[in-house]
Amino acid sequence: MQIALIIAVVLAGAATALQTGMNAQLRDSLGHILISTAANFSVGLLSILLMIVALRVPIPSPTAISQTPTWAWLGGLIGAFLVGSLAYASRDLGMLLTIGLLIAGQAIGSALLDHYGVLGYQARPFNLSKLLACLMLLGGVLLLKRSS
Prior knowledge:
Blueprint: H1 2-30, H2 33-55, H3 62-66, H4 75-93, H5 95-116, H6 128-147
C-alpha cells in the first residue's frame, strides 16, 4: 500500500508542474490572473461535483458541517493563492525554478509543522538530518537560479 501512495504523490507533484503551465497559458489567454484562477477552480469544482454524484458520495450532516473548525475551511484560500502565484511566477522564473521554490517552501513549512505537531499530526522533532535536507533543497534552488 505504501508504494501506491508514494507513486500517487510523485505523480501529483509532476502534475503540479503541468497544471502550472496550463494555468499560465490560461492567464495569458484570459488576460488576468484572478480570472484564470477562478476558471481553474470552477472547472475543478464542477469535476468534483460530478464525481460526488457519480459515486453517490454521502453529503455530510449539518451537524458535522457546523462542528468543523473555522480554520479548516481556509484551505481553499491557500489553494487559490497557490494556483494564482504559480501561474503568475512561472512565466518570469521558468517552470523548474518555480517548482523548485515551491518544493523548498513546502519542505521548510512541513518541517516546522511536523516539529510542533500542528493540525493534529504527531510531533516529529526537527533534527540535523532535516536541517541538512532543507539546506540541500535551498542549495538546489540556488543552482537552478544560477543556471537560468
